[in-house]
Specification:
Shape: globular
Strand order of the largest sheet: 6-7-8-5-9
Oligomer: single chain
Number of helices: 42
Structural class: alpha/beta
Distance between the termini: 62 Å
């Protein structure tokens, strides 16, 4: 009875429910449940002794903690003549992604001989097959695959969760499959994204393989288009076939074919019906043709209905999927609903868990025979026509969504966590949804991760009514919504969401929760020019964490203030807070955190060229540690350093500019692949300058205009200043002085609006445009305040340029403030190198 008393306790049930979401240690769990730590720790030990929990020591936030996790999720109580027995039931849930998708089984094909001939033409290296759902795109591609030889075919069916990074990882597994002797080379985990794209593209190009990309219309990540577009342009031996409901965004050329599938003609439709044992009279076939228009899947389902006598075509045509569903027995319906509920293919273990059936093999065989699902290796996939038809039926069975939530909850993968959140939302389990949103605060699993596109995450968040969540989870909801909007919606909308989260979190008395909101709020306030408000928010954040926060939180709070002061042009104060953040980071013993802070620029080193070898070394560390955001930031910084070195030189070093272009293009590829639109925009702005300096004027203009368009879409930002400066230079080069002054004036206004340290250099470049007037006195009057502002707040390249102009035009120089020295030794060392050197940035400023 002691066991039952444990389960009957509300306190114990609250603890078990919290641990069902993710493992916890006593202090953090006590904070989530608003209970005393000693009280929670005692109950955890009791539950562990009863066999309900399993505890293990782990390293969290620089300290050793005991993490508790559930040993089981279900219990069976058996009462018999011997008394009662409680037995734990454990279910193995296989959510590990399968290595490769199998080619679907071959089935008879009707009326597609002409399309097959075009696809088999050796001159066709890239084909797009477009057609309505159920029109036979997959069947056509399956036949092509078997004729090509399935040992040389790789197949991928897209889901809304697919991202560019996941596609590249999948392509790496394709290469290991196609060339087993080099599988270890392709399984290396320390590649950066741009390098991975180059390697898989080069590897696939050497193989005479067929790449079939199914359900392309489900893609939500635009970066996937860029990868496939690269394959369209460069693959030589490989052949790519894209299947989609709508026209994919790829241009037609001599090696690219577009095939649009119509309905089957009369002969092919009659052949399909005959294959399933149905001979239709002329009158009945006319009714079928009017109802289905030669739609192959509808004809297949109609042919297998038990009541497909004369006149049945109209009822089946109204909703072929629902009619086919009602013709099934109860267990087979249950299996079909499980496949319709989850938005990805399912393995046998997953289907058992969702349906409760010990052996669903027979229902699966029935469904596959009726063409309602198809098997792909070890998984099963429902046809989209049926998924859409059964959406209302699935919605009326919330218990399937609850089981699906439990299926994906144990996983550590970001896309599985988002899938669990989707099903919890559909089942209206708001407490579970709130706990999943809080995983970001716990710091154990990040959402959305780099494996999930932000658009998909936003769709799920938009289905959650905030008033159904408790206050804590509501604050996390608005924070998650804000960060998912970043780079998609206007930045002021992001700030409004964070302000809402702050108002909710403020009275809750949880410093960590409030800090989790204040930190990004202050950062984006600063990026939009609200410097006073940003400083106030970030200073409050630091005060909160100085007494109660962890060492890592304190380091982050100080570092956010360093970012703000650097944006203002207050480089001395930025260095001060950076040094204080680095001191605290070293105390955590976290090498990754130390390196991430160490490699921040602090107004850029005085000798940039010496920083490039160090950046290569630090980049290798981040690659090895699988930190893609930091890898791309190193590339952005490397390109920016080279651009700054050449920005105000009379004669440019073209090899350095080509290196800068390479760094920046590589960074853009990586940033866009992991959904970092905000950082990618910054790289695009510097790329426009690098292209201009390298005399690639047309590309420079295209980059600057495209960046400004993105900037207008999400709200005015820091990138616009540099882009208008580039366009001003282009206009001046072409003799359009009015255009040059116009863009330069806009750059000055934007810098003043943002209250940033670029006001000086923007004003200086505007003053230089008046040099052609010949009025030296008026020019000096314009130059003097611009020179003073640039020297006071500018970066070293801008300061040197300002001094040169001051000497040239006999402009007085302001008194220099005392400079704070910055160490540049290796991370963790206490000594300093040569005076004037300082680390370079991995934090991208926007």
């Amino acid at each position: 009875m002691d066991f039952l008393r444990l389960l009957a306790s509300r306190e114990n049930l609250a603890i078990l429910s919290a641990l069902a979401v993710n493992p916890e240690y006593p202090r953090r769990l006590a904070g989530r449940l608003h209970r005393g730590e000693a009280h929670v720790a005692q109950r955890l030990r009791t539950l562990e002794e009863a066999g309900l929990l399993q505890g293990s020591w782990a390293r969290e936030g620089g300290k050793n903690v005991k993490l508790y996790r559930l040993k089981t999720r279900e219990f069976t109580l058996a009462i018999n003549e011997e008394g009662y027995q409680v037995q734990a039931q454990t279910t193995e849930i296989d959510t590990t992604p399968y290595t490769l998708e199998g080619v679907p089984p071959r089935c008879p094909i009707f009326g597609r001989e002409q399309e097959l001939a075009r696809l088999s033409n050796p001159s066709s290296r890239f084909s797009m097959i477009v057609g309505l759902p159920g029109m036979g795109k997959t069947t056509l591609a399956t036949e092509l695959a078997h004729r090509h030889g399935i040992q040389r075919v790789v197949w991928h069916t897209f889901t809304p969760f697919d991202s560019a990074l996941r596609l590249l990882g999948l392509a790496r597994r394709w290469l290991a499959f196609l060339d087993p002797s080099r599988s270890q080379e392709y399984e290396r985990a320390n590649w950066d994204i741009s390098d991975l794209l180059d390697r898989v593209t080069d590897g696939l190009s050497r193989h005479r393989t067929l790449i079939i990309l199914d359900d392309y219309q489900k893609i939500r990540d635009d970066s996937i288009h860029e990868i496939v577009r690269r394959w369209q342009r460069t693959l030589e031996s490989a052949k790519v076939v894209v299947l989609s409901r709508n026209r994919p965004p790829f241009d037609l050329d001599t090696t690219t074919h577009l095939i649009t599938l119509p309905g089957l003609d009369r002969a092919a439709a009659l052949g399909l019906l005959k294959e399933f044992g149905l001979t239709a009279s002329s009158a009945e076939f006319l009714r079928l043709e009017r109802a289905f228009g030669g739609h192959p899947l509808s004809l297949r389902l109609y042919a297998q209905q038990p009541d497909n006598g004369p006149g049945a075509a109209r009822s089946v045509g109204a909703d072929v999927g629902r009619e086919a569903f009602h013709a099934l027995d109860r267990s087979t319906q249950h299996v079909l609903l499980a496949l319709a509920c989850v938005r990805r293919p399912l393995g046998l273990k997953d289907i058992r868990f969702l349906t409760g059936l010990k052996d669903p093999s027979l229902p699966l065989a029935v469904l596959e025979r009726r063409a309602m699902i198809r098997s792909e290796g070890l998984v099963y996939r429902i046809h989209d026509v049926l998924r859409d038809s059964l959406s209302s039926t699935v919605a009326s069975h919330p218990e399937i969504h609850r089981r699906a939530t439990a299926l994906f909850l144990p996983s550590e993968r970001g896309d599985d966590i988002v899938e669990a959140l989707y099903h919890a939302t559909k089942a209206e389990d708001w407490s579970v949804a709130g706990n999943l949103l809080e995983l970001d605060l716990a710091g154990e699993r990040e959402m959305p991760s780099t494996s999930v596109n932000a658009a998909v995450f936003l769709e799920i968040l938009n289905e959650i009514p905030p008033d159904k969540l408790d206050a804590r989870h509501r604050a996390m909801f608005h924070r998650s919504h804000a960060l998912a909007l970043l780079g998609i919606a206007k930045t002021p909308a992001v700030i409004r969401e964070l302000e809402t989260a702050r108002q909710i979190a403020d009275p809750l008395g949880d410093p960590r929760l409030l800090s989790w909101v204040l930190s990004p709020l202050g950062y984006y306030l600063g990026n939009t020019g609200r410097m006073v408000a940003a400083e106030r928010v970030l200073a409050r954040n630091l005060r909160l964490l100085e007494s109660t926060g962890s060492l890592a939180d304190k380091a982050d709070a100080r570092f956010m203030l360093a970012l703000l002061y650097d944006r203002q042009g207050n480089h001395m104060r930025a260095k001060e807070y950076w040094r204080r953040a680095l001191e605290v980071a070293r105390q955590t013993g976290n090498k990754r955190l130390v390196l991430e802070l160490w490699t921040w620029h602090v107004a850029f080193p005085s000798n940039w060229r010496q920083m490039l070898p160090r950046l290569r070394s630090w980049r290798a560390d981040f690659r090895r540690w699988e930190m893609p955001r930091q890898v791309e930031a190193v590339d952005i910084l490397s390109g920016e350093i080279l651009c700054r070195e050449e920005r105000y030189q009379a004669i440019h070093r073209k090899p350095d500019l080509r290196r800068a272009i390479g760094f920046l293009e590589r960074a853009i590829t990586g940033c866009e692949a992991i959904g970092n639109r905000y950082e990618a925009l910054y790289a695009h702005s510097w790329l426009s300058l690098a292209l201009f300096l390298a005399d690639e004027y047309e590309r420079a203009e295209q980059e600057a205009e495209a960046t400004l368009e993105s900037d207008r879409r999400i709200g005015p930002g820091h990138c616009a200043i540099l882009c208008h400066q580039v366009l001003s230079r282009l206009c001046r080069l072409r003799g359009d002085m009015d255009g040059a002054r116009k863009h330069s004036d806009i750059a000055v206004r934007q810098a003043r609006r943002l209250n940033c340290g670029c006001v000086g250099i923007a004003s200086l470049e505007r003053a230089v445009l008046g040099e052609d007037s010949g009025n030296e006195i008026a020019l000096r009057e314009l130059l003097e305040p611009a020179v003073a502002e640039t020297i006071r707040k500018g970066c070293p390249d801008e300061v040197r340029y300002a001094r040169r102009l001051a000497r040239q035009h006999r402009v007085g120089l302001p008194t220099e403030p005392h400079e704070i020295g910055t160490p540049s030794s290796q991370p963790g060392a206490a000594s300093s190198d040569k005076r004037g050197e300082s680390p370079a940035t991995l934090t991208v400023h926007l």
